[in-house]
Each structure stands twice: as C-alpha cells, then as structure tokens.
Design a protein that fits this description.
The chain is of the alpha/beta class and 520 residues long. It contains 12 helices and 22 strands.
Length: 520
C-alpha cells in the first residue's frame, strides 16, 4: 500500500516537472493567454523623421581609392576622420609653420568625388600615436597656426568640425580648465577662418554629464551655446545596445536643463569590438560568434537612435586593423575585416552586411517613431522601429528582451482595427550572411521575435496604394517572458509543495514499516 502511494505521488511529481519544463521552454501553452486586439492601430504622421544623414562612419583610410569605394558602398553619408597637426608638420618641425596637406587633399578629394561629406575632428599633439596625447601650453600657438592654415585651405570642402576627441578620458592630458580654454580658442579660429563651418562640441565619452556641466560653467551658457551648433558625444555600450536609450535620455535632459533643446544631436562614435580575451581564442569560432553578435548591435543602435531624432550616428569604425591579432580590442571594431595578411585583403563582416542592408533599405525614406502598435496581454519589452522607404515599402527592425516569442505582423490602415489587414509581400533579411527569404501575398506574417533583431521589408500587393504608409500591428499570444511567470512558476510552486507532501508521506511509511518490523 505504501509503495503504491509513493509511486503514484512520484508519477504526479514527474508530470509536474515535465509541465514546468515545457512551459519554461515556450511550448504553445501561451494560447491560454489570449491577445486583446480591440482598438485601432495608430500611425502618427506628425512624428515623421526624414532619413538623410543618419548613416555615418567614424574613421576609414579613405585616402586610398579602394577604401573610399567601400565607404560609398556601405551607404555612408558622412565620414569622420582625425585632423592631426603632426601628420602635416612633422617633416619641417613644429615651429616652422610649413605643412604637407597631401594626405588630406587625397582624403577629402576621394570623399567629395563620391558624394560623401566629411567631419574633421581635431585631436592629438606632437608625435606619432600613441605617444602624442600631450599638448602642453607652450605648443598651443603652433597648433593654432596649423588650424588657421588647415581651415583656410579646406573652407570650401570641409563642412563640419568637431572640437577635439574624448578629452575626458585621456586624449587630453592637461587639466579640465586648460582644455576648456584651449577649445574655446580653437573653435574661434575655425569660426574666423570659415564663418560657414558647422561646429560640434567636443566628443565626450559616457556621456559624462558632470564634465559637460563643468564646460558650460567655464564657457558661460550663452557663449557655449553660441560656439557650438551641434551637441556631440560618444555612446559606447559594449555588448548591450539597450543601454543607449538611457544615454540619449540623459543628454536630452542635460540640454533641456540648459535651454539647448533646439540644437541637433550627433553620436560621433559608437561601436562594439569583436576581439577575444586570449591568444588561444584568436582565430577560433569565438571570433565568428562575436562578429555575428556585433551585427545585431549595429541594427539595435540605429533602430534606437534614429527614432530618438539623433541626426547623425557614426559607427566606429569602417575597417579592422590588419596588423594586429584578434586580442587587440581597438583593432576589431570594424564593419570590414581582414581576410588575408600582407598584402591585405578585406571582406565585409556580418556587421558590415547589416549596416549596408539597413542603409540600402531606409536611405531617402522616413522613420515613424510611433507607427507600430503592439498587442500583448501583459506588456513585455518590445523594440520596434518603423521606416517607410523611398521605394514605398515598410521596413521593420524588431526584437524583444527575451527568448524568441511567436508574433503575428499585419499592415492595417491607421484608422482601422486589426480585422482589416492589407495584403503584402514580406522579405526577411538574414543580415548575418547577406541572405533573404521572400514570402508573397499574405495578410498576416508569423515570426519568432527574440533578443536577436529581425529585419523585415513589407511591400503592398496593391501598387495603387503603395505610396501611403500603413500602421503596423504586432500581436503576441502572450507577453514575452510571461509564460514561465504565468504557468511555469505556479507549477514549480505546486511541485515544491508536492515534494514536501511526498517526503512526509514517505517518512511516515518508513516509520510504520520499522514499527511493524520491531513488533513481537
């Protein structure tokens, strides 16, 4: 009798374990939680953001024709490169005032001929990298002379100037007040020699809000605002692009506090390195996995920054460094990797394909920050960015904070409910390998949406209506991540109680058995 009872309880326990596991891995238990699809989807046309110069790159050796061609192929609108005093003056010495501008003539010439604008960023003192970060006060007059000559030479070529790179993390070795004094003078020299130049504030890493406050206090708010046309900062987030939203919000809040909400905002560096930690990992599949993950960060960065109205976003950088191995973090930020060493050959990394594909799809189109309606019973964190392309197609970048969750996507008129979807064709782009999958003539498209973003293009089947953007409705059968909470955790709780019950029953049975065994 006791054995039979224990066996029955054990079978029940195993069943509950199975239920917990199955619900935890996302089998279709979510049908128990229906989706509320009442009410219209919305498309806020007033929120439209034109896609102009958002797709940008920081640093590429575009003085070489081959690399300049890749800059254009990627769809880059503006390329950011250093302006280095030593590069132009080293042959004659710092005090001579004689400069060789051949590098910059070639660089700007290659970019201009390909329809790519340039952003020049002042950085570094005297010497070769990395031993050139010091710029002592006694060198300032010579640097100012160089700046005067440089700006006068490229007044008709170079439109944008960033007044120094990352002074808050070591690219400036003097005091903060010294930098504020130096940068004020540098900006005034640019403005005097090219009144039409557009000046960006120094590219602060973090962004470190306290440092920005100190700079404004030193300049004076009115002078700071008059000096800089654009607010620039660097927003590196490592492997967690979702941190970008808070960084952008922090800068907007800082601008509002100082009455500068009317100024454009540029992120002049953001990226992720695909380097590995040890020499043993170099050249292994770990590198390839990092490269695939880097591609997801490209889509997440632009899909967050563009609807936040960041005017230009510069991915750092175009090319990996071919003269270092996979452990060199600074040398593995590129969209383009090194295929063979000496003579070097190059190839697109997955991140390069992701950047290129997104640029091809959205350039010349429009972003609607409020164009996607998500129907989910209990919320859930969904990132959904809506673009209407120049080809009159809808482009979506979608991901969630959890493992892949089944969703259904529909196109609906902005004032209509979910019951009147518009038929469309959909292309699902596999940007990791530069592939795609086309599905034609459907009213609803089912797909799993998880932490790896998906890139979709929806094209109306009715050409007559194709020039009108439609709202996007995404229906989840449950909130991502809620299955385990709604079913799995209660099951686990019951399992725990059953275990205790089973344990008590087993001990009781054993006690009775011992009692019988010891009876006369």
């Amino acid at each position: 009798m006791e054995k039979d009872t224990i066996r029955k309880r054990s079978i029940l326990g195993i069943a509950l374990i199975a239920a917990t596991v199955l619900t935890g891995i996302g089998l279709p238990v979510y049908a128990l939680v229906p989706v509320d699809v009442t009410g219209p989807a919305s498309l806020d046309l007033a929120s439209a953001i034109p896609i102009k110069d958002q797709m940008c790159i920081s640093h590429a050796p575009a003085n070489w024709e081959y690399h300049a061609n890749n800059t254009r192929l990627l769809g880059t609108r503006i390329l950011r490169n250093n302006i280095e005093w030593f590069t132009c003056a080293w042959q004659h010495g710092k005090t001579a005032g004689i400069y060789d501008f051949s590098y910059y003539d070639q660089l700007f010439g290659n970019l201009t001929s390909r329809g790519i604008e340039s952003l020049g960023c002042f950085v570094y003192g005297w010497g070769w990298w990395p031993n050139n970060k010091a710029l002592p006060r006694e060198d300032w007059p010579y640097y100012y002379n160089f700046t005067t000559a440089f700006v006068a030479r490229y007044a008709s070529t170079l439109k944008y100037y960033e007044i120094f790179n990352e002074p808050n993390i070591g690219f400036w070795t003097g005091s903060d007040d010294d930098f504020f004094e130096f940068s004020q003078k540098l900006a005034s020299i640019v403005r005097i020699n090219d009144p039409s130049a557009i000046l960006l504030s120094p590219g602060i890493v973090g962004p470190e809000i306290g440092y920005l406050d100190k700079m404004v206090a030193y300049y004076g708010l009115q002078n700071f605002s008059a000096t800089y046309d654009i607010i620039a900062y660097h927003a590196y987030s490592g492997r967690n692009a979702e941190m970008l939203a808070q960084k952008m919000a922090d800068v907007r809040s800082w601008m509002a506090r100082h009455g500068m909400t009317d100024k454009p905002v540029w992120i002049t560096e953001i990226g992720m390195s695909t380097a590995v930690a040890t020499n043993e990992q170099a050249g292994t599949p770990i590198v390839r996995e990092n490269e695939r993950y880097q591609a997801t960060q490209v889509l997440k960065v632009y899909a967050q920054a563009i609807p936040a109205n960041i005017s230009s976003i510069f991915w750092y950088c175009q090319n990996d460094w071919c003269d270092v191995n996979d452990t060199e973090g600074e040398g593995r930020f590129g969209l383009i990797g090194c295929v063979t060493p000496g003579p070097y050959t190059y190839g697109f990394k997955p991140a390069g394909f992701a950047y290129w594909r997104l640029s091809q799809l959205i350039q010349g189109g429009t972003c609607f920050p409020r164009g996607v309606a998500v129907r989910s019973p209990a919320g859930g964190r969904i990132w959904a960015t809506y673009f209407f392309s120049a080809r009159n197609t809808t482009v979506l970048v979608l991901w969630s904070q959890n493992t892949a969750t089944a969703a259904t996507i529909s196109l609906v008129p902005p004032a209509a409910g979910a019951g009147s979807p518009v038929p469309f064709h959909v292309t699902n782009y596999d940007y990791l390998v530069n592939g795609s999958l086309l599905t034609t003539g459907i009213a609803r498209y089912s797909i799993d949406i998880g932490f790896t973003p998906v890139l979709l293009e929806l094209e109306y089947t009715n050409p007559a209506a194709s020039d009108q953007p439609l709202a996007v409705l995404i229906e989840f059968a449950h909130a991502p991540g809620m299955v385990m909470l709604l079913v799995g955790l209660p099951a686990a709780l019951v399992l725990g109680l059953l275990f205790l019950f089973n344990r008590v029953g087993l001990l009781d049975a054993m006690a009775r058995k011992r009692a019988r065994g010891s009876a006369p």
